[in-house]
Amino acid sequence: MTVDTRRRRTLALLGASLLLPSTPALPADRVPTPRMTEGPFYPRAFPQDIDGDLTRVMGRSAVAQGTVLDVTGRIVDRTGKPMARAKLEVWQCDNLGLYHHVGDMQPAGDPDFQGYGAVSTDEEGRYAFRTIKPVPYSGRSPHIHFLVRDGSRTALVSQMFIEGGAGNEQDFLFRNLGKKAELVTMRLENAGTGLRGTFEIVV
Ligand SMILES: [Fe+2]
């Protein structure tokens, strides 16, 4: 190999290396979960029992009325990075369509339903909570309210809907979302004696 050929090869290799990206490509952007307001039924006063199992109330032996539903999923940011140690708060009405912990706004409902609960995500952004399959109430299709806290910051407030939920198409919030409604809709599957669903949250 002549000096000239070697030089040309070196230059060609240098040229090729310059074409390589210097930083890894950013993951595709995720579509953020649509935001909704807290609404009037966020607790005014928190119950003593605020764990991630809403079907049991501390000190009571019975299980909440309704169909048990286990919800699991992940909380990620728009680049897909997990939100570790975020707090997920959930609240919903009981099987009679009544919210709890909202003072005199509602008559007493199912005493064995917790009404509100909070869980933390793990290092991979995963969360899990147990509740009942939500039921419709006046003007609203079945939904679970949720709120994501990142430290003291409220990162997102929204609602989870059920695929094929009774009255979804008439529900003003669901309808207003148009195509984005699929981002807040979860499919439920049979799981033993209850149901399970997965729901990814993008903040
Ligand atoms: Fe609601």
UniProtKB/TrEMBL annotation:
Transmembrane segments annotated in the record for this chain: none
GO molecular function, one term: ferric iron binding
Signal peptide region: 1-27
CDD domains linked to this entry: intradiol_dioxygenase
Domain Intradiol ring-cleavage dioxygenases: 71-99
Pfam family, one: Dioxygenase_C
Region feature Disordered, mapped onto this chain: 25-44
Gene3D superfamilies: Aromatic compound dioxygenase
Keywords of this entry: Dioxygenase, Oxidoreductase, Signal
Entry annotated with the keyword Lyase: no
Protein name as catalogued: Intradiol ring-cleavage dioxygenases domain-containing protein
Lineage of source species: Bacteria, Pseudomonadati, Pseudomonadota, Betaproteobacteria, Nitrosomonadales
